Structures
1.
Amino acid sequence: MRFIFKTNYAQDINMARHGGDRFWYGCLILLMLAMPLLIDDFYLGEISYICILAIAGIGLMILTGYTGLASLGHAAFLGVGAYTQAFLLTHGVPFYLSIPIVIVVSFLVGAAIGIPILRLTGMYLAIATLALCFIAEHVFIRWEHFTGGNRGMPVPQPEMLGLSFYDSATFYYFCLFFLIASMLVAINILRSPTGRAFVAIRDSEIAAQSLGVNLGIYKALSFAISGAFTGLAGALLAHYIGYLAPDIFNIFLSLTLLLLIVVGGMGSLHGTIFGAIFVGFLPQLIAICRDYLPSYIGSQPGLEPMLFGLILVLFILYEPLGIYGRWMKIKLFFELFPTYKKQTFKKQKVFTKTDRV
Amino acid sequence: MSLFKVENISIAFGGVKALNNVSFEVNEGEVFTIIGPNGAGKSTLFNVISRIYQPTEGKIYFKNNDISKVAPHKISSLGIARTFQNLELFENATVLQNLLLGRHIFKKTNFLNEMFHTPKVRKGEMEHRLKVEEIIDFLDLQHYRDTLINGLPYGVRKNVELARALCTSPKILLLDEPSSGLTNEETNDLGFWIKDIQSILKITIIMIEHDMSFVNKVSDRILALNYGEILASGLPSEIKEDAGVKAA
């Protein structure tokens, strides 16, 4: 077990807690950079997809995991990002300009949606964002000039410096770059006063307010930041898919993102990566399992959504902290071995919290 | 001259008059205690002062400025901090994060430079931390810095909430039942701290309290409320003799 002797306040602010962190995350980045040498194109594509999911997951994690606002409509932001990117590239805007524009557009869309619905909380917010998801899908269908309607819209693949997105290694490196950049920005936001204000809103709105946090502004900001990350993921997703159709951005995609953050672990950025890996590989896993199941189960069409739902429920019941929480427990088990107690993570029931002011 | 003045505050929830024509003044540097039986309107009064409730009538003055129309999130930057009767801590954050949130009103950086963690952000964080550490030393919270609120005993939580309020560097501190749920020993400590807050940090305290022996020990003046109306106000010794208070 490692004991950290703190001699400077900066140690609590720094990203890496100690040398071990620096070493292991460095190794991870090297491994990720070497990935195209190790695996074939199909799996490289899968990992690119996981990176995209993780970026969207960061977006939703900031909103739901840190600010405590549930959203069932994040597919809409993915859609906004994807269509904006496709539209810009079709009209000859170069890639290095289109990405910042996509981020700004989805930030503004997030703020525009956030401001009217931030008065809602809990269940009502979930319903409003659910409605948002359906409205967005209809807009994508009807606004043919911009989206190509039901006919869909091809996404031009950009070429820069002799590199093309058709090459899966190039695309993979772009996704990886944006994932790492998003992660760093998210960490920076969360360790700053703004990030703390988000957590404050999640845990007690009334106390946050009495400490001077402007609830309206910070909730809208959280929505906007979340929208920006998800929009960026949407832009990359557009390149991944190659051809946009409105029905991609349906409720099921929103639920997938929700599953991602719940399974990964609410309120942790590690969780988004774990969750993205899980959600990204789950369809493959189901596809493989189908072959081994008897045909009357294996060939059922609704198997995937059903399993997604089942996993979501099981995680909420048995491991609310998700894969990341489980990882922490396993780590602690080995750190404290052989003195680990099962009760360490048992939550004490607290009855002091009421709705009374 | 009074630092803080409440003038003819009334508030009604439907037909219930929670507060009826309540006025009082608090002088700079004193400990002013509000007592009264359950449902007397003490907490309502606090919520009116921290602008969570809008009074039906009346005005609140702080340093001779009318604050009865100020937005709730601006109250703390004026210098009024409060604690809650049923703790309102940020449960899934560490003690340190809770206390740093107390410094929220002093944040000078905006979202853009926070996104890239510029040196300005780091410098700001260091300054906040320094102030927070002063409060941690003051209230003996050194052991708990990195503990989640979830895992703390009740007494320490109350202490953290007091610390969080102090982190906002207030002029007036509103304490809603600071001693409820504490052991005798903890209540004693609290008594000393309140005296220290008054004399060392020069903060005026308005407090709601039930424990009469504690009240008599720390407060300079007392206001007794019942059914939203003022029964009596004055020095602790006078209140003890007041017939109306005894009846209530």
2.
Amino acid sequence: MTEIFIHKGIEVETDVPVTSLAEELGTTRDLFLKRAAIFGGSVLAVTSLGMALPSGAKASKKTDIAILNFALTLEYLESTFYAIAAGEKHGFSPRVDRLARVIRDHEIAHVKALESTIPSLGGKAVKKPKFNFSPSLYANETTFLQTAMALEDTGVGAYNGAGPALTLNPVKQAAASIVAVEAMHASWVRGVAGTAPAPDSFDKLLTTDEVLAAAGPFFA
Amino acid sequence: MHQNLAAAQTRRGFIGKAALLGGGALAATGAGVFTDSAQAASTPKSDIAVLNFALTLEYLEAEFYDRARSGAFGNLNEGVQRFAEVVYSHEQTHVDTLLATIPALGGTPVKKPALKFPKLTQKTFVRTAIVLEQTGVGAYGGAFPSLKSKAVKEAALAIHSVEARHAAYARLVAGTLPANVAFFSPLTSEQVLKRAAPFFA
């Protein structure tokens, strides 16, 4: 089972049985494996590194790399979603078209930054997964904005949830500078959708599992 | 890319600058009254200092929006009034949370400093809100790498992104691009103080 993940190019030391990881995650083994496969192994990387690797600079670096690969996967997802929105005619109003174009450009910039940061730390960036964005998501502004809202709120929660585990200061700084922009996107999308841009005094810190539950449907 | 930030925000740096903010900073540093609880004992003073620095900014934001929603900057239209009410409620919650968290971690919260605000109109209120919120985002983002305690990191992150939502909300209300950069630069404590200084009496 561990070969799946190694083949994806993630540097994982699989000294922990997959079954025990699944138990730790409070989910079934099959579900866990499915989700791990969806995310190209970065799930396993995050969980196993966080729980099992010996402490030390090398392990710390690997923890950060795994988190960055998890983030990169989400950024691939977002950038693809907005590229479809901005690249084709959907009959959106000018302000929604503009939102899609601007956010697409930001997400692409995040992808590029992560793709170059991960190797600079000695890691290997995950490949872009295959996505499944149904044309119905772009059928009207409301559906598009609702999906965008879910993705942005999930992105904010994902970075926030991973933040406390980061070890390297430059990575922490980069994550902070990206999550702020994801939150600005979330607020923007919500405002344009006519819902509260900032619905709460505190944002959530999502677990890996919660992020996967929200993003899973978009993976082919 | 921002490696120098954490180094710039040494405990001493925060203390020195916090003192500029109105005397209450002594509490930020002087504390040392750690409780017996494991968490309090394990919370570094530098984290407490960051929380007190954040509390000072939250006092500023809360009073700013409280004045706005109460009519100090003239009548606001419905959308701007709602913005002021919502953001006030969040900032006051941040103040209350920090006031409860700091002692729980063994620190002493700074007192609310005396504040002053210029005469503002609806339009300049919203523009000032953009500056304050962006300062808040940069402050939390800049301080994050220096934090040591997991609980403090979690609290800071949960607040940081809400400040970013506020910033975009303010920009949306002002009719300007809500997210105008792909990466939001963190601020050093010096930069934060420079931006916030005009509001301290």
3.
Amino acid sequence: MEYRLRLAKRMLFNKKGSLIGAVLAVTIGILVIHVNFVIFQGLFDAIVRDISNYRNGNVLITDEEDYIDKSDQALVSWFERIPYVEAATPRLSSSASINMTKFGTLHEETRIPIVGVDPFRDIQASTVHETVTDGQYVFAKNSIVLGSNVARDIGGAEVGDSLKLKIVDRYGQDQIRRFVVTGIAQSPGGQGFDYSVVVHIDTLRDMMNRNGESGSIMVKLNDPTKADDVKNFFLSAFPNDDFIAETIEESAEEQLAGFRSGIAMINMIGYFGMMSSAFAIVTIQMMLVNGKTREIGVMRSIGATRKDILVIFIFQGMIIGAIGAGVGTAAGLGYTFYAKETKMSFNNSLPLEVSYNWEKIIQTAVMSFMLAIIASLYPSYRATKLLPVEAMRTV
Amino acid sequence: MVKALDNVSFSIEKGEFVLIVGSSGSGKSTLLNMIGLLDRPTNGKVFIDGIDTSNLSDNQISTFRNKKLGFIFQFSNLLTDLTVLENVLLPREIAGTTESAEKNARELLKAVGLENQINKRANKISGGQAQRAAIARGLINHPSIVLADEPTGNLDSVTSKIIVDLMKSMAKELNQTFIIVTHDQQHFGDADRVITIKDGKASEGNQPSELEVLV
């Protein structure tokens, strides 16, 4: 082994306290970045996942004129011929007033978002049906699924209860229907239908006087990375219609923009943490240099050049960086694994969508390693400035 | 301003065994440091091998120290992070000439009686053993000049005698110049020359001399 590397290693490993301190500094710097990523990127991805699963799919088709008048059957069939598409389903949305008499008391709520779904296609393209915690999803034209908050606000509606729903149709006329509650939907994170009600799409079309029309087509892909291809393919296939096709990033941009800047800020804090660990390394290495003054003097007296001394202490920085990056990355991966396996969530909120971003993991490790080397430059430089005769006097 | 050395001028021939003696604080270690190029005189010059060392760059001085000079210190100054063998090998590794280095190091350690201690950490051997290892380290690069600063100053009388005998036999065997600083001349018995430093001034009988080392 190269003698400078051997000496650097021995000097470092014989000062275990300093070594552990410096390695911990790097480790914690990396761990902060990983924890930040798991929590905040996980939260962001979880929101994207839920918006995609519940509302927008991977590609969302809407119309510039608010409603799609082309046959939903035709459009869904068109999509389902594309190999990347797993399923597609029409949706129709409006707002409603709802009232229910329970134990002799009339409970009324207005401006409840109402979503019409095709129960057979929706369970293939969306996971809203999985949020039904009590009862079952919409299955008949007079069945309604209440969001848990709606159910609570109208006096504690339960499966089997009957209620009245009123909407204003396209001609401004009130349309009132009676429904039977078949399910209560509840999901963590706020992206589900806790504040909405879900009915059969044909019923809603009928009430809105929009027979054959849809508000949107939600398309689920088996390979989400192909969203742009599917979108472009669709737009080129229907050039004369006023369709709007958006990927999840585009359709949810408004909801996600704030998060993006928040994540960028959190990442900045993480990198500042990493900078702090660099200062810790500088301090610890200065202590190491001060503790090895005699050795530096001896080495200079037997012929080591300033460059040799510089290299020894830079090697120490590299060793600290390598071990710190290794331990930090291992700890970060351990935390990521734990978060992923336990479907980590906070206060029963939505479970984080944890992923291994290898590019970022490697980037963080390399950055920490480089930072440790950069941090060792000043102490190394100071070591070279020691005059042999002065260093020897410390005996 | 205090003058550690004042108007010191002498020359030493190749193969001489020279003692520099004087009381504590007389300036003898400062003189040795200047000969060893660890320190530079504020005025005057040190010639080694006919080379004016005041013109050498820091790197050249390092190379000079590595190849031409061997140091033996009062407290051995072995690197405690290394084994005895690694300490002896270090000057060779710094020189970058590692061919047959380990063989030479083992031979030297055998010559100083440490063949059984080679793999021990330097801080795990006695003071006498450490000083013998330091002698081996000082000789590994076959330096022209060996400089020893109070090499027995930290040792008991029995061990001191062993170290002195060892240095003398090495000097004779390898025909190397030994310049030894000591405050106790008696330990060393006969020497080719004795230079006395008193209040920063050198005297050697009545012979005026130049500070020049000829090898």
4.
Amino acid sequence: MVRLWQAAAVIGAAIFCAFLSNRAAGPERRLPWVGDYPDARTVPVLLSAAAPTAVPSASRPPGVPGASTNEYPPHPDRPWVAISGDQALSLQGQGIPFLDARRTAVYLEGHIAGARSLPIWESTVDDGIKKLYEEGYDVNAPLVVYCSGGDCEDSHMLAERLHRFGFNNALVYTGGFPDWEKRGLPVEKGAPR
Amino acid sequence: MKSERSWWRSPWLSIRAQIGLGAIFAAAAVPKILDPPAFAHMIYNYRLLPGSAVNAAALVLPWIEIWVGAALILGFWKRTAAWISGAMLLLFVGALTVNLVRGNPVNCGCFDLHAKDRPKAELLADMRWTIVRDAAILLLVAQVLSVNRKERRIGP
């Protein structure tokens, strides 16, 4: 028979150690005890409900050099819309901020030139979003969010978080960093300058 | 029959099964303790827990693993540690099986939290292999429990 007090002691010691180690961890390794993510069990439903949708274009196809950001109107009714690599390139040319949702260590290994790190899985993410506010960034202006492409959901999760903070124009670059690299577009390594 | 039973419960086998099981749990815990966000991401990908519970699980589970591992390696509370390790293995097998049935490929997150993206078919094959591996580890649990039951019966 399992001695219940021993099992309780093991679990209690584990909780105590977890508390101490989390407290001692740096911001990149620390976790809030209560996760602030979309319900993991329903994420596939959420993603399909907000399936990648073409960004409405006012007068000309997005991605055309010189395309205005007016082509990307705010979308307060949904957290994000998807954009292609061509659109992402065009937006970068217009100086639209790029937000990298991947872990800091991955960001340091290589990221889209000029992108800012907002790792959704790290405790610094909310501070990063608040910083956007402090810098006076217009909540209705476009923000390009990306991660590792493919099945990566980090960019969608970051877009949802931004949406909850009041940012109404997150554009998810679904191809993400692998697509950008494949196109031979400018990348940077290390911390942002 | 009797010799088979005595081989299964031999002290030679028992000490190795106990230390092996403890080492597996301790080795699995270390990368998770060093990088809780990566483990939280792995747990999230299993799509079994509500988003609010993911972080707490990522913080506490590795420490349970390390305490179980320490108990088995150092030889205290062996039976309790073996029961907890068995329960955790069954939990892992169950989580993998549910996702196999769903066709949702996940990285196991058992020892390596930074696995590169791989094709879906490869991930699903790995999940099957991991279930077989966990079943083999469950044999170690059974061995440790059976020996400790014997010791209890003949003890003072």
